[in-house]
Design goal:
This protein is of the alpha/beta class. The protein is built from ten helices and ten strands. The two termini are about 30 Å apart.
Amino acid sequence: MTMTSSAPETATDGTAVPALELAGIDLHYGFVRALESVDFRVMPGEVVGLLGDNGAGKSTLLKVMSGAHRPSAGEIRVHGVTHTFQAPSDATTAGVQMVYQDLALVDAQDISTNLNLGREVLRRGPLGWLGFVDHKAMRRRSEAELDRLGVRTAPMTRPVAMLSGGQRQVVALARGAIRVNGEDRGILLLDEPTAALGYEQTRQVEALIRRMADQGIAIVLVTHNLPLCRDVADRYVVLNRGRKVADLPVAGTDPDHVVGWITGARPSMFPEADGAA
């Protein structure tokens, strides 16, 4: 169950409200501190690259955002409204959609069916009452939605098992974008979307990420691919041992500095917070 409290879409000073905001997030497993006082925000239409070495807390923070983990302390706000996510379904209802590294596609089903999982179109009349699906209507809707995203892929009737790695990734990203691309622009969480792709397939995914952001979707991108992050992200957020150590625009930032924050060779931008901890 998700618990909400009313909040305005714009702040009282006229500034825009983040699509997703985390404040003071802690997550402890017994004596192990996975996350410590992490603040994070992503604006509508912004791509934020969430970076860090293995064990830095990236995946854990992503799971907090998606409702898979409940934080020990802190607040989660979606478009200014405070939420308590008890499960991933609560995050989905709030407009937060996760695209996992394994894509969660049904290989035996075609593209249209995968795009419509959980929101199938039933046939009219008695057949619909019995649960029969209108595949033609779903294909038409899928084609219209992909056209809006500017996506060109295989025919809607092709099974996912017959797609290339890049095509599979595009289908998974498009499904996430379709689910959050309603009137209240949603938030898309991407976990290593190009980890197993070649150069051309990676470029295709990069272009789709930017198109989704241009449509107002807020995107959080977890990746080890710094060139990808530099090409598509607007801002870097770097974690190191569960703490946020850097938060700054991609434009004008020295990539060597980013590597330094990831490895711990460069001091945190927030020494006061480290000292307080």
